[in-house]
Model the fold of this input.
Amino acid sequence: MEAGQIAFWVFAPVSIGSAIAMLLQRNAVYAALFLIVNFFTLAVFYLLLSAPFLFVVQIIVYAGAIMVLFLFVIMLLGVDRDESLVERLRAQRPLAIVLGLAVLVELVVAIRAGVGFATKGPVDFDRTVNGAGNVEALSRVLFREYFFPFEVTSVLLIVAAIAAMLLAHRRRSAAGDDEVVA
Amino acid sequence: MSVPIAYFLVVSAALFTIGSVGVLVRRNALVIFMSIELQLNAVNLALVAFSRMHGALDGQVLAFFSMVVAAAEVVVGLAIIVAVYRRRRSADVDDVSLLRW
Done:
């Protein structure tokens, strides 16, 4: 067995297990921590798929920045709140699980039909496509074919930052705006 | 490269399923949001796996863009959750029922 295979078979159960643990965890903080574990395993998968740049970005952006933001908001809203167990729609939970399993079966059948379980990628991927290094090759694609979308994402980030400031801003002058309206 | 591409795709499909079940089952808006993040990451894994399969980098570039969009989405979504929490003092999605019939 090769190193890549061992890594895959070690990290695939961890990945799915941490995702299920996140789903079943009542406490939001623990759910966020399980999600961080899951993001790390995904980073390992990117490394196995010869995408070292995305491996680093996954750890810095997802496991680092985004999850810190999540934990920050969880702390801001209070951690000791448990979910209410009152069922508003009676059959929702079992129906959701059944539909989820149906989606899983459908996706696996589609993978089997479209890709097949024996297909492997080109053997010399690291030599041909990632020739001078993954970052160089990626930047060549990014700044040539995908240059315009890349610039558009910068606009998106600015709009998102302004929107977040506007939404989370507390208006002090407007009377009763902070009050509980429930 | 010894692991078939389909194995990564199956893991991706499983993660996507868990994420969608999480969206349907959980009530806490933050946990629902985390499940959406899980779904986005599952799709990213599928993109990178397909990029590896076809021997081209377009899938990786697309996964990179999807990460940027996910970052923007997280910022706006969390701001909305905080704004709703300020009004309703709750992060439970069942409490936000003003538009219900």
